[in-house]
Amino acid sequence: MNRTARLCSAAAAAVLGLAIVGLVVGDYPVPARSAIATAVWDRGGEFDFVINSLRFPRVTVAVLAGVCLAASGLLFQTLIDNPLVSPDIIGIDTGAAAVAVAILAIGLDARLLPYAAFAGALATAVLIFTLSWRRGFSGGRLVLVGIGINALLSAVITYMLVRFPVERVSAAARWQAGTLSASSWDDARTLAVALVVLLPVAFLLVRRLRIMQLGNDTAIALGMRLEQNRMAVIATGCGLAAIVVAVVGPLGFVALLVPHVARSLAGALTVGVLLLTALLGSVMLLSADLVAQRLFAPTVLPAGVVTAAMGGPYLLLVLRRFNRAV
Amino acid sequence: MRSDHKLDPVLAADRARRNPGDVSSRSRPVLSTENLDADYGGPVVLDDLTASIPTGEITAIVGANASGKSTLLRALARLLKPARGVVYLDGADIHSQSTRSVAVQLGLLPQSPRAPEGVVVGDLVRRGRYPHQRLFDQWSKADERAVVRALELTGLSDVGDRPLDELSGGQRQRAWIAMALAQDTPVMLLDEPTTFLDIAHQVEMLDLLARLNRSENRTIVMVLHDLNQACRYASHLIALADGRIEAVGHPSEVVTAEMIERVFGLHVSVISCPVSGTPLCVPHTHCH
Ligand SMILES: Nc1ncnc2c1ncn2[C@@H]1O[C@H](COP(=O)(O)OP(=O)(O)OP(=O)(O)O)[C@@H](O)[C@H]1O
Ligand SMILES: [Mg+2]
């Protein structure tokens, strides 16, 4: 078994372990054996509600959302060839959030929210891509435009939160912090459907990304249709990020950090690195969720606050290493 | 002209994937330009350039810095859309053909290629097989053979597992050449393939290209800075000055003191190389 396969096995074991811990711990104590039994083969019984209506869907959403975010981050970082880029940094999440908050603020049906957020993310991606296009694509320009758009949209969100009736926007504000605690099986299903469609595409794109990484000249010389494949990568990456914002709300730093960790463990991009990234995304979100649930129990923090708190220090570490290398 | 000249290049490449290196069983595409103008959005870089690349021969492109050598190579490799004029590959406008069908006929080593972080040599070379693979294609035995062969030919078999950024500049250059070899195309375009190489490895590299040319009939086009190497290895020379062709033909016919003066603004004496009999340019300097 090669190194990447070993790492993937370890990450998969960690996902399983953390998921079980997620089922067991909580304000209402459930013995480990009963927790697993209730979740898997003995539905019903004393712990049915706690496990199957609260914790199991929450854990499942954490696993799936982690996969989406981390995979999305890897696609963007490879495409733009910059480890400090992710969909949340270039404004994809904020775009989704802006439309979602607008939906809630003007009092439209909250069931529209996932679709609206998804549309917002894609619209933002198209906007960034168009604005940064000048006689060709440039990753650097895309990032700069993205950061600008991100700031602009954040301002729009703040404006809406202040401007609209508090009873409407308070839900929006809560959603905007990115919380897993209210996760339902419906949320899990939405994420699962998106993953079934987008994850195989992401895996197919790995081989093309490996060529695009060699620079425009070499990629074209090897027969790569750059523009189409760039669009495909951006659309897939946006889709993966957007679906999470739509279902859970913005969860910062997962898409930024996890691919970076996976690459430094497993090396240059391969299908195995994407798999490892996906698994580590779940690991990070499951851990963040545990901390969010238990740190100030019984008060529950939004998971987005925890991922940001985990991400900040790590980012500084990366930057320090970056600076030393230059 | 051979009868298989018009063979569909993708089909031909499919046939050839079973026999990597056996370029002779494939169509031999003809490469040429007609009234080519090229620029990068600013001043004209290539000016009304008409040239044809002799099939199955080694062509060297020489000229001063910024004379447009890399630009010509990039235009030949369809990396640059001409402002005017046409690049023909196999009788048709290269930009009208599918990029993949071009990629199985024509490979390129750019002047300063970019390596992904942490990539190991073998992985880089394997990526050269991309145009031979399909959407759901598994890595085939032929792909593996082509990669092993490319590593062998470039003397890199022992460092296949090493990260590229831990190698010397010369080894790195050879890894890129190995990637171009793995692509296994009947036409190879190389931009300064000998930079970063020590004199022994320069000769080895040029010998390798000469061997690929002779035994497999590959068409080779390379930008070279060393005029004497160009004269020694190429049977066709294109000398550029300010984006125009200043001289073209067999080195022993076109390399003269006057030509070098016009192209490089340098005083030389041209003598016959004592080893190969090809033209040898000896610069005049003020130091002696
Ligand atoms: N990407 C680019 N953008 C703008 N101008 C360019 C670009 N590449 C080359 N040029 C310009 O085109 C002209 C020809 O450049 P080219 O790279 O073809 O020269 P060259 O003959 O290969 O030189 P060298 O021997 O230094 O490699 C130069 O004036 C250069 O400034
Ligand atoms: Mg050049």
Structure report:
The complex is a heterodimer of chains A (326) and B (288). Chain A has 326 residues and is mainly alpha-helical. Chain A has a single domain, classed as ABC transporter involved in vitamin B12 uptake, BtuC (Orthogonal Bundle). Chain A is built from 13 helices and no strands. The radius of gyration of chain A is 20 Å and the shape is globular. Chain B has 10 helices and 12 strands. The longest helix of chain B is centred in the last third of the chain and has 18 residues, at 199-216. Mean pLDDT of chain B is 87; it is low at 1-7 and 20-26. At the A-B interface, helix 8 and helix 9 of A face helix 3 and strand 6 of B. The site of magnesium ion has 5 residues of chain B, from helix 2.
From the structure above, extract its key features.
heterodimer; A: 326 residues; mainly alpha; ABC transporter involved in vitamin B12 uptake, BtuC; 13 helices; 77% helix; 0% strand; globular; B: 288 residues; alpha/beta; 6-stranded mixed sheet; 4-stranded antiparallel sheet; 12 strands; 33% helix; 24% strand; disordered N terminus; binds adenosine-5'-triphosphate; binds magnesium ion
Shape of chain B: globular
From the 3D coordinates, which CATH architecture of chain A would you assign?
Orthogonal Bundle
Through-space gap between termini of chain A: 35 Å
List the secondary-structure elements of chain A in sequence, H or E. Answer: HHHHHHHHHHHHH
Low-confidence stretches of chain B: 1-7, 20-26
| Helical stretch tally of chain A | 13
SSE pattern of chain B: HEEEHEEHEHHHEHEHEEHHEE
Shape summary of chain A: globular
Counting DSSP H or I runs of 4 or more residues, the number of helices of chain B is 10
Strand content of chain A: under 5%
Can you say what the CATH homologous superfamily of chain A is?
A: ABC transporter involved in vitamin B12 uptake, BtuC
State the distance separating the first and last CA atoms of chain B.
53 Å
